[in-house]
């Protein structure tokens, strides 16, 4: 199962990815983690990434795609993988399509978590208030101002990726406002249907 999870921060992608990992035994791939691992392992692409990062630059799409291409060759990714937080732009989505096609692979599902963003902001504000009431520090991700900034960045840069996959008939929308277990059931139904076709 080769899956992409799309949706704004706070939509529940991390929670659901963990359940998909548990059920299907495929790794969840984070581009940040892969980048750090490639740099640490000093792979050719990792060395290129390190040079860019040390110069204070942003790692280019071709380096990120190279790192994804390298990572999905690993034994644990042979049955599939989950990409969460990637692709972030249409250019990255196009590059990912080309790279997978070159390997004779295709995506099984692109799941987009559809959520009410005002309700998400409310959820985050509640979590922050509850943490404060318990005398606990508020997680950085649960700071409403930080969250608003992340949400604005998502809407500006990444929200365009879902229409790209929709136009190709690959997008499946999941109602992310339902209870967590219901969202999981909806995802598994989609994935089981896809697995039957593959």
Structural account:
This protein has 198 residues and is an alpha/beta fold. The chain has a domain of 101 residues: Rossmann fold. Helix content is 58%, strand content 11%. It has nine helices and five strands; from the N terminus they run E-H-E-H-H-H-E-H-E-H-H-H-E-H. A five-stranded parallel beta sheet has the order 2-3-1-4-5, sandwiched between helices. Helix 3 packs antiparallel against helix 4, helix 4 packs parallel to helix 5 and helix 6 runs antiparallel to helix 7. The radius of gyration is 18 Å and the shape is globular. The N and C termini lie close together (9 Å). The mean pLDDT is 90.
Write the layout of secondary structure elements.
Layout: E1 2-6, H1 13-24, E2 28-29, H2 31-41, H3 44-54, H4 61-71, E3 81-84, H5 90-102, E4 109-114, H6 117-133, H7 144-158, H8 161-167, E5 171-175, H9 180-197
Helix pairs in contact: 1-9, 2-3, 2-4, 3-4, 4-5, 6-7
Quick structural gist:
Helices cover 58% and strands 11% of the residues.
